[in-house]
């Protein structure tokens, strides 16, 4: 029920947007709760975008974890 | 999206598991609790429990919003359906047992019950079919409540109303800390509830209860990293609130969603199936929106229903006291095809998740 799926905003029309869930699955969702631009990823739950997904942050997070894991290895912790 | 696959990277998973092994205390039992059906799905589907040291246990708390809807509120929906009101609901709600019948059984007997993807589809139906009365069974935690709020504030048609069953997660987490012999060592907090409420509502867990708390996402790497962060806090002897899911969860949550929830709902006490009444754990429409409150509009109030059938141990599964396969009915009298308890009905119910992922569920 709290499942939310990332989708890319393809077209904006007021409070509605057409989003792409990948592999051509398109749907109109309500985007009034977020500030989304065309091309952004949003997290969609029950027909509503509930948050934007920060792609840069996602990549940085992964890089950071790899770094932390590597650094801690060197320290032998 | 491309990074999704990186959050399933087996090499990175292996590294995290190695780190987990290093920071885990040798003989002491450690028990982390999550409160989200989607977390249970990730953990079970990817067999993450099998990757953890034997003394590290991850249990599922009341994280399935469909499972905890009390029978009384299903009975109210059934009563409305039997009065001729079209009931719209999420697919998972359809088979949740009421005291006597589920909405699906009411539908089989001729009531008009329709599954919708979201509340806006239900509002559209009511707009199109002005000759009928519609009610939406608004089930869900903080992830779902903002969509109900937007529609309630957006002047729905007069033939539309809400049967609000929304519940709030932090009070349920606090309840778990008071359950004797549950002995939780840390919380994996739910990512998508947190996308809305942010981090602040969890502050009391480390501060008041000295309970390490990490908000985590739903990919296998997210969950493993969340467990590692909790174990690391434990090893350091600290209790902090950390955010593993920063690509989605901001400290302040989604202020716009919180604002519409605040305008549409008042916080009140609410019953949880298998748990009982929790203060300040439920939402109800504010008085100025009472014209759209189905209970007010049609005078439907069921005080008490039959939540747990004889032999069903959903009430123990819901709070993580037992695992699904410790219930004598699991996969015998109670199966996904013929569920007895609510935990076997919803796709996020712990029993159903275990039933559908049998190969990976064992520790």
Largest sheet of chain A: 5 strands, antiparallel
Q: What's the N-to-C terminus distance of chain A?
A: 39 Å
CATH architecture of the largest domain in chain B: 3-Layer(aba) Sandwich
User: Strand content of the residues of chain A, in percent?
Assistant: 35-45%
Strand order of the largest sheet of chain B: 2-1-7-8-9
How is the CATH topology of chain A named? Answer: SH3 type barrels
The tally of helices of chain B reads 15
What's the name of the CATH homologous superfamily of the largest domain in chain B? HypD, alpha/beta domain 2
Task: Indicate the CATH class of chain A.
Answer: Mainly Beta
Assigned CATH class of the largest domain in chain B: Alpha Beta
Largest interface in this structure: A-B, 32 and 51 residues
Number of separate structural domains of chain B: 2
Percent range for β-strand residues of chain B: 15-25%
CA gyration radius of chain A, whole angstroms: 17 Å
Count of domains of chain A: 1
């Amino acid at each position: 029920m709290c499942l939310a799926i990332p989708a890319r905003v393809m077209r904006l029309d007021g409070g509605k947007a057409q989003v792409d869930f990948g592999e051509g699955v398109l749907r109109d969702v309500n985007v009034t709760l977020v500030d989304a631009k065309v091309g952004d990823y949003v997290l969609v739950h029950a027909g509503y975008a509930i948050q934007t997904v920060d792609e840069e942050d996602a990549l940085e997070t992964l890089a950071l974890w790899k770094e932390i894991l590597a650094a801690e290895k060197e320290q032998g912790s | 999206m491309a990074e999704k696959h990186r959050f399933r990277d087996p090499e990175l998973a292996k590294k995290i598991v190695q780190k987990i092994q290093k920071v885990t205390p040798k003989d002491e039992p450690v028990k982390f609790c999550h409160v989200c059906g989607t977390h249970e799905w990730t953990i079970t589907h990817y067999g993450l429990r099998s990757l953890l040291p034997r003394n590290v246990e991850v249990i599922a708390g009341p994280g399935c919003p469909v499972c905890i809807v009390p029978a009384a509120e299903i009975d109210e929906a059934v009563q409305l359906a039997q009065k001729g009101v079209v009931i719209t609901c999420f697919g998972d709600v359809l088979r949740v047992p009421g005291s006597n019948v589920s909405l699906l059984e009411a539908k089989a007997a001729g009531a008009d019950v329709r599954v919708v993807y979201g509340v806006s589809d239900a509002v559209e139906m009511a707009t199109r079919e002005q000759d009928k009365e519609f009610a939406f069974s608004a089930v869900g935690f903080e992830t779902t409540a903002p969509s109900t709020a937007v529609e309630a504030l957006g002047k729905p048609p007069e033939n539309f109303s809400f049967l609000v069953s929304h519940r709030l997660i932090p009070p349920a987490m606090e309840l778990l800390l008071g359950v004797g012999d549950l002995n939780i060592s840390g919380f994996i907090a739910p990512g998508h509830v947190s996308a809305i409420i942010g981090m602040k509502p969890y502050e009391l867990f480390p501060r008041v209860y000295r309970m390490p708390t990490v908000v985590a996402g739903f990919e296998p790497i997210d969950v493993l990293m969340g467990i590692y962060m909790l174990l690391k806090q434990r090893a350091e002897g600290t209790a902090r609130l950390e955010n593993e899911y920063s690509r989605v969860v901001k400290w302040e949550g989604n202020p716009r969603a919180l604002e519409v929830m605040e305008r549409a709902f008042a916080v009140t006490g609410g019953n949880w199936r298998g748990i009982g009444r929790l203060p300040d754990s439920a939402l109800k429409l504010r008085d100025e929106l009472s014209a759209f409150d189905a209970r007010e509009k049609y005078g439907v109030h069921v005080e008490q229903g039959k939540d747990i059938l004889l032999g069903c141990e959903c009430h123990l599964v819901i709070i993580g006291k037992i695992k699904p396969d410790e219930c004598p009915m699991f996969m015998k009298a109670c199966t996904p095809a013929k569920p007895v308890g609510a935990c076997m009905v919803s796709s996020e119910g712990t029993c159903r998740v275990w039933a559908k992922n049998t190969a990976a569920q064992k520790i």
